[in-house]
């Protein structure tokens, strides 16, 4: 089960994915809304918070969630406030009922991670790519277009054309040929 808890929220926030199963986690706790009540409406407990990156719209609710459920937060750079434990590049982690491989994908932000499960056919892309060939901003601190393109290319090498679900940091998830959306983002990032 993957449920976007930020659906319908009218605030500056990222998507917030509740991944239920053997290891119930939140991928990005979001910001500027009461996500704790939305979590409690669906599950009794959490095992961890997992971060794609630490922009404020993705982590503003981190303290509320970690305090409410007495869990730790995992991300790429534990020197950043709120990140308790490091997730290394290529590390295998359990999200819900599936094993995912973490991919360090800078370009939007230096600590950016994507999570891919070949078995589940799922990619959590954070702010690397979005639907319809959109891609993460590179005009913010730590942003770099060439690095972003390299990161998108790296993800393309890992995923397959039968990818079933693309869960992005903003906007709707893609369940209709999501590989094509990632491929288009790689092309669009080179043109702009």
TrEMBL record:
Coiled coil: none annotated. The keyword tRNA processing does not apply. InterPro entries: MBL_Glyoxalase_II, Metallo-B-lactamas, RibonucZ/Hydroxyglut_hydro. Its EC number is 3.1.2.6. Residues 13-170 form the Metallo-beta-lactamase domain. GO terms for molecular function: hydroxyacylglutathione hydrolase activity; metal ion binding. This is Hydroxyacyl glutathione hydrolase. PANTHER family: HYDROXYACYLGLUTATHIONE HYDROLASE GLOC (PTHR46233). The keyword Protein biosynthesis does not apply. Keywords: Hydrolase, Metal-binding, Zinc. Its cofactor is Zn(2+).
